[in-house]
Amino acid sequence: MGDRGATCDNGDMNTSAPYSTSTPSDDEVIALTRAWLEQAVIGLNLCPFAKAVHVKDQVRYHVSRHQDWDSLAAELEQELCFLAKVDPEQVDTTLFIMPLALAEFLEYNDFLDWADRILERLELDGELQIASFHPHYQFADAQADDIENYSNRSPFSMLHLLRESSIDRAVAAYPDAAAIFEKNMVTLRKLGLKGWNMLPFVVTKEQR
C-alpha cells in the first residue's frame, strides 16, 4: 500500500498489473448499476439522499477490471484523490465498481478494511468516507438469506465513495438515521425476496 505518509500528490497510479477484459462490458456494468440505483436505492427509497445527486448527474460510475488487491488498491487510491479534488457540483459521489473481483463477501470485507487504511494514509479520512455494497452483503447479526441484507446488496462488488460534507448535509435534513434503517427493514420485509427478484435489474442480471 506504500508509505504511511503518502498523499494524493505522490506519483501516478500503477497500471502495470494485468487485468481481465472479459464480459460484461463497462457499459453493461454501469447500466446495471444505474438500474439498481434507480429501482432499488431510489425506487424503494432505501436512501433518501440518493435521488438528488442522481437527478443532477453528480454520480460517477467507475468500473475497475482489476482482480488482484494491489491493482485494485492503486486504482481506488486514484479515485479517492480524484473525488477529493474535483468540484462537488460536477461529481458529488463515486461508485467504484469491481465486477471481476471480491466475489466472496468475507474477502470483500477484508479489502474494505484495507480501503479504509488507504483513506487514512492519504489523509482524506474526515473528508471522504467509504460505504459498502456487495451481491452477498450480510449484516453481522443476520442470516445469509435474510431480506434485510438486501438494503446493501448490489449487482456487483462496489465501494461507495462519499464526501463527509454531503453526509453532514444529509444528517441535517434527516437527523434520525436509525429511523431510515428501520424504515428500510420494513420496506424490504413487505417486498420479500420474491418481490426483490422481480425488480427489472435483478431479472436482467439473471438473464445475462
UniProtKB/TrEMBL annotation:
Residues 12-24 have a biased composition (Polar residues). Pfam families: DUF1415. It comes from the Bacteria. InterPro entries: DUF1415 (IPR009858). Residues 1-25 are annotated as: Disordered. This is DUF1415 domain-containing protein. It comes from Herbaspirillum rubrisubalbicans Os34.
